Structures are given as C-alpha cells and as structure tokens.
Amino acid sequence: MMVVMLKGLYDLQIIKKLLIGSVLIGGFVVYTQYEKSAEPTWTVNSEQFSVVNSLKDGMKREYIKFDELELIDKYGFLKEINKTVTLKESYRTLKIEKIWNMNGRMYLLYSVDVKERDKDEYHIPRLSVKNMQFQTKEGKELVLKAGEEMGQPGTRDEGFVYKHRLYRSMMLMPGMFDSSENDWSIVSKANIVRLQDLTISSKNHGVDSIEDIALTVPSEDPYTKVLKSEPINQTFTYGDNQKVKIKSIDALLYEQRLSVEIPNDKSLIGFASKENKLQDQPLTYGILGTNKNGFYVPIYDMTGDVNNKKERSVTFTSSVHKDPRSFSWKIPKNDIQTFLSNTDQPVLKNQEILKIGNTIIRYEGMTMFEGSPRIKLSIFTDSSQHLHHLRLIPDHYYSDAEVSDDYERVYKNNIISISDENKTRMDNFEVHSSENEKKATYYITFYNKKEMENGEMKPIMIPESELTLTLSNLSYLKPLKNPVDIIYKNIMIMN
Predict the structure, then answer these.
(1) What Cα–Cα distance (Å) separates residue 380 from each residue in 122, 284, 330, 360, 364?
(2) Per residue in 346-355, is it b (16+ CB within 10 Å) or e — as a string?
(3) 261 close to 267: Cβ distance less than 8 angstroms
(4) Which of 429, 362, 360 is nearest to 395 (CA)?
(5) What are 313-340's pLDDT values in tens digits?
(6) Backbone angles phi, psi at 406, to 5 degrees
(7) What is the CA radius of gyration of the chain?
(8) What is the pTM of this model?
(9) Where are the alpha helices (DSSP H) in 81-221?
(10) How do strand 165-174 and strand 160-162 relate by DSSP bridges?
(11) If DSSP codes are grouped into helix, strand and coil, which group holds residue 79?
(12) 427-443: burial string, b at 16+ Cβ within 10 Å, e else
C-alpha cells in the first residue's frame, strides 16, 4: 500500500515538472516573438542616418524625388504591400512596403532593418533589379531588362530611417528596345510583375543574390480614373441639326475632360476653337472613347493666371469631320524621266485631285526647291483655319500596331501615301510645307532609306517609276451656326 502511495506521489511530481516546463517554454516563445516585433531599446544615431519622426515625413522626401508621386499617393494609387524576404547572411529582413505600377513603370518603396552595429547607410543592404517579368491573367509572359529612373536631379539619397528600418526607393523602367517582335501589350495588361535576378549589396558583405520577388500589381489605371465630376448638361447642334450634349466636366489625375453624348456619326472626330490667345492657329478638341464606355473631349487649358479662376470656358466654332474616301492619282514615268533629264525645267501641272466644300487640292507637277527635286501639291481654301486641319502626314509615320479603341476615331488623319509601279508602298519620303492665309504648298522629297534611319537627310532624285499618290482620311470643318460657349468649373486635381 505504501509503495503504491509513493509511486503516485512520484508521478504527480513528474506531471508538475512537465507542466512547469511547458509554461516556461510557452513563455519563452511569447517573449522571443515579442522581441522580434518590438522596437529595439537603442536609438538610431541621427548624425549617421537621416531619421524621420513618421512615415508621412519620410514620404515627403519621396515626393521631391518624383513629381507625380504625391498625387499618386494622395488619391490612393500607391498601394501598401505585405511582402517580406529574409536576408540570411546579414540576419535582416527586406520588406516591400509600397508599389505603384503604370505600364511597367514601377515605383518601389522597400525597407531593411537597421542594426546597432551599422555605422551608416552603406552598411545596410541595397536592392538591385536586373530583369522584370510581366505576367497576364491569360498566362502570357514577357521578360525585359530593368532600368532605373533616377528622379529629380540632386534628390537621390541613401534613404531615411523610421522605427529602426531604413527605407529606400527606386523607380523601375522596363527596357523597351529588346525586340520589335515582343508583344508589348503584355506590359500594360500584366497583373503580376516578378522582379528577377535580384542582388543586395552592402559595404561589409559585398554583393549577394536573393530569390525573385513576385508582386501583384493594381489593375486600376490612375490616368483614366475620374476623381471628381461636375454636371454641365448643355446641348448644341451641328451640321444637319444633329445634337451633342455636354454632360459634365470630369477631373482626372493630369487633365480635365468633357463627358459628351454624340449621335451615331462616324465622320465626327472633334470640335475646333479659335479662342486660343497663345497662337493664331485654332485648337482642335478630339472626341475619344467608345460607344460602350462613353465619349469624352480632353480639355487642355492655357497656363498662367487662368489656372486660378474658379470658372473656365471654351468656345467651339466648328465641328471637325473625317472623310472616309481616298483620292488617288498617278504621275507617269515619262513625266518623271523628262523632269530628271533637265531639272532646270519644271514639269507644270494643274490637276485637281479633289474638292471638299470650298477646299481644293491640286497636283502642280515637279520642280526644284532649295536645290532638290520635289513633287509639288497645293491646297486652296477659304480660311487659314481649314488649312490647319489639312496638314498632310506621310503614312509611314504611323506603325501598323493596333491603336487603342478610345483613339480609333481620331487616329491617322490627312494621310498621304506613295507606291511605285509594282504597288510597293514607299517609306523614304518626307513632306514639307509653307502656308499663307488661304493656300498651303507641299513639297514631297525622297531620301535614301538607310541614310534616313541614321538621321542623314540628303535628298535624292525622284524614283523613275510610275508613282501612285493617295490622300485618305482627310479632315474638314463645318462651321457651327453660332459659336458655343461652354462654361465649366475649375476642378483640376492639381489645384
């Protein structure tokens, strides 16, 4: 009986020891976890480091480096990130704190913990990024070299310290010159950006590699999001009693725009205003957008005192239209050979190519101009305002890449293209012009293709081939019966 009692007391002592041990172990775990998250008791030397009292004060330093960053942060586009990487060799952690991404251009704010042994910022690891991999939701990937935008001159520093962590930043830029075969849409559509081939470097540990860091980037486009809006609700007519409604003035990050309702008129591409006091030429306000998402007219205000006014205004004097037709004519090979055999003798023509309203375009032949052989065109109209909207542009100025749906309506206006007798499109010519009040004269000049690509603009002879010249997407004006004054509130975000 006594033996049984003694054994029971012995077992009870063992249980007590186990319980006490468990409590001690649990307490140690809680203590060590507290130690990891708690602030160190020592103070960072403000003579050795740039110490700030709050993260807000630190961000004010960042705003000076990158002009747009304050607005990006103010309106919630700078996103907080919870991404931590352990730096084993130096017993530290690297934390990605904030990011902002726009078409691959990425602002990155990261921090590394400061140790009592650190004498200055150079002892604390700095992050470097060699490549950026862009991934879309559909699984498409594109890897590009990473460059770094340095920010405003004289503002680059070694970061600031807040709560025993050194904060540094970088503005990464993907290299866009790797290959013309790349699908660049992947960059703008990416939802994940993986920072690749990463290194950290410090004065006492040299350079070490660390694992890739994958970041989920915000899908919100800060350049197109409407941040403020004020109603206008003004309707006016153009053409054959077709109506346009100005619904509101909307403020975006860097611009204001008029939200508009327009009729089903594919020829309508914008409005013209002569209320431009900075120069004699009229301004054109293009119509952007789609039927699905709505249409809008960007407003580009003049600088100066007007920015301080509570109300602003714009006056539309004409609607701007695009002619869907194309107009072609041929220059015979014999005419070219005749001219080149004696360039002192111009080949004179007076061939009317087209007439739109009171505007006429004529082919006038070939002549020497400023010492070089040129093809000559002229545009005659009833006002200088019409000439401004008919400035001819070589088709090879535009790439064959698809344009955004928002810009499809206003893209590629007043195009001139040239093909030879084999129907091969030519891309080695330029167009120069001179204007007076009601006439514009255009001179078409040919160049050696390789020399053009190297920036050597030495004119060559007109090709001895039958040439076909084509004008397309010509824009023209329809004056409004009465000018329309649109008054809107000044709600620019930057004010």
Answers:
(1) 68, 20, 21, 5, 12
(2) bbeeeeebee
(3) no
(4) 429
(5) 899 999 999 999 999 999 999 999 999 9
(6) -60, -30
(7) 34
(8) 0.72
(9) 185-189
(10) antiparallel
(11) strand
(12) ebbebeeeeeeeebebb
